[in-house]
Amino acid sequence: MTVAIPAQRMMGPIKLAPGVTPAQVFIFLVVILSAAFTTTFVTLMQPLIINSQLHVPTGQQGMLAGMLGTTQQGAVLLFIGFTGAFADRLGRRAVLMFALAGFALAAFLFPLVSSIAALFLLRFMFGMASTGHTSGGATKMMDLPDNGSRGKFLSFMLVVQAGAGALFTAFVASRLPGWFKSAGFSAEEATRYSFWIIAVLALAGLIFAFLFMKDDRPALAAGGPRAKSATFAEAVANAGEVLAHARKHPKFAVILLIGFVIRTDYAIMGSFLGLWVVNAAKLHGVSAIDATKTIGSLTAISSMAGFVAPPVFGFLADKVNRQTMLICALGMTSIAFCATGLIHDVFGPAMIAVVVFIGLCEGAQTVSAQSLFAEEAPVHLRGSAMGLFAILGTSSVLVINMVGGYLFDKAGFTAPFVMEGLLNLMFCIAAFLVVRNQKKRDPAPAAALAPDPAAEI
After folding, report:
1. pTM (2 decimals)?
2. What are the structural domains, with CATH classification, of the chain?
């Protein structure tokens, strides 16, 4: 019996995977952007809640932000393995809908918190929901393109997300509280209504995914057994298969090694950039709501830098060694974060230059890492592999947030960023050594050592 092979369509210069249509890519973009906008808004508004709603003293804000980040990443560490297994068994759509439901509920409840304990509880819930965003979104993005177009496809996705994120942050998210305040509402009411608008956005994304996103079962498509649920034993078994794959494939082993550091830069930026700006603004007599506009501008600038990076690095990812490109991106990120130690005025041009550099480096790092990951991860275990990758990154983020918070309060506002630069440098060197040692251990290819049978005839 002959099995028909689904056609492969083109989306401009990008070749899609068999059976994937440009319409499916558009639907995925709408869903993933609604989730990304929600996470961006929550991160952007945390300094406002800490300062204007809970009135936490300045000298305690760094540790609080670090502990909140650790709490959220703790939830990720606990649940990412399960959502990764769900993504492989029940489909990417199912876990994305779970994420959007959690985001909508969290966004509704955030402006109602009246205690630090309630804020911790909400950050834990938000972290649990974000595992669906990671497992479903990242793995779905890997399913859509043909392997030969991964770099171009990832660059396209990142350009769209960065551009949309920059516009949303600069013109909507950072201005919502100010608009409500200008309309005569109190600071508390402005914060509350802003969050509720974002909750409606997340809920709209959930409905859109339910109505239009194609139901998928990657494990079934790859010939895997059907499962109605993802058990703990199954998640552990899948992780074991992923590790076994890493032992046989050095490039994938390097990806897992880099997993310890590749998410920490986003954690540092998310937890401490806003606090840095708000506390620096306080020294100049600027309110937290007004400072939020500056945070939004810097975040948008970083996103626009990410808008520029993917086309360049996405093209390179299809032309050069993706492993080498990833190591170079780590080195660039190290320099970018260490440069924050030279900043003395967060409202000056030097701050903008450093934020642009960080955005470019993060774009290079994301394109190279995701391209290499998608190339090397086993197809039927991509969700579980992404879950394990996230677990490794989360383990580091748990520590980084705590240490960064302590350094923010005790050593200065730029200390967490410089620490992140040094951490990237350490892992850049470690990855380089792993690659070099692997090349030394690998014997010459058998085809090069064996005589050519045709030559003896």
Report:
1. 0.69
2. 20-220+232-441 (1.20.1250.20)
